[in-house]
Amino acid sequence: MTRTVKWREMSVYAGVAAVVAYCLVPFAWMLVSSLRRTQDLFDTSLLPSPVSFASYRAVLEPAQGFGRALFNSLVVAGITTGLALLLATCTAYAMARLEFRFKRLILTLIIATSMFPVVSIVVPLLKLFTDIGWVNTYQSMIVPSLSFALPLAVWNLTTFFRQIPQEMEHAAMVDGCTRGQAFRKVIVPLAAPGIFTTAIITFIAAWNEFLIALSMTNKPDMQTAPVAISKFTGATTYETPFGSQMAAGVLVTVPLVVMVLLFQRRIVAGLTAGAAK
Fold it and tell me: Which residue has the higher pLDDT, 232 or 89?
């Protein structure tokens, strides 16, 4: 019996290790490739020898405009996340607390709107934004991204608000709070793990968005980081700057990794909220 339990534990650890390796090996390969010299890019060694930062210097040259692209991505992802959380928090609270007809149908429709393929709405949106003069603006990227981020945020936060007992609000209102004050001072702090988790998911989705940003901008100074990476060119027409692309990929990934590491406790608390009462 003990041997069987040990084999089960070992199989679980082996499965987790396989999943972690599957997720991290591409990033490790990208990091190692970004630290190789151009002539060493196709080496099969596990570590770069010698280590070279030439690719990073090439990416961060002012002529490449990659710093501006990172700033644009930060603006678009930050505003999208902020607006999505503000609107989704109020909407999700109403969906969790109010009782009305067709509520389940409305929630289904909300999540269904985020399942439409982006390519199906790009052309109509481009025509609309061209007519109103929104092409090459932040709002032309924020509004479409928000249309996909908001339904997911509403769906996630509705679940978190449902797990908070209504007696918490009633107790606050007995102590003199209005419903709005009870929501701001009691419910929102209790739902903080869920809000942080939703914020991380929304930010990552907006940060990695490519098709909308590619379609709505044609000026280099308005492009986001994923679009800028796709348009890296080499010194000649027949050269592909793999090293620069790898370095740019690392620079795009690092902010997400840092953010997850900083808020990992909140994320874990949010993902496990409701698992045990």
Answer: 89
- Whether the CB-CB separation of 202 and 81 falls below 8 Å is answered with yes
CATH code of the domain containing 150 = 1.10.3720.10
The verdict on residue 1 lying in a domain is no
| Strands of 47-190, DSSP E | none
**What pLDDT shows up at residue 276?**
42
Domain of 96, in residue numbers: 65-231
Give the chain's domain count: 1
Contact 266/189 with Cβ under 8 angstroms?
A: no
pLDDT digits (tens, 9 = 90+) for 109-134: 888 887 888 888 888 999 999 999 99
Q: Phi/psi of residue 263, each to 5°? A: -110, 25
Which residues fall within 8 angstroms of residue 256, CB to CB, at 6 or more apart? 203, 204, 207
How many other C-beta atoms are found inside a 10 Å radius of the C-beta of residue 85? 21
Vertex 161: Cα angle to 160 and 164 (nearest 5)? 95
Question: Could you say which DSSP state residue 164 is in?
Answer: S
Q: What is the pLDDT of residues 156-196, one digit of tens each?
A: 898 888 888 888 888 888 888 888 888 888 888 888 888 88
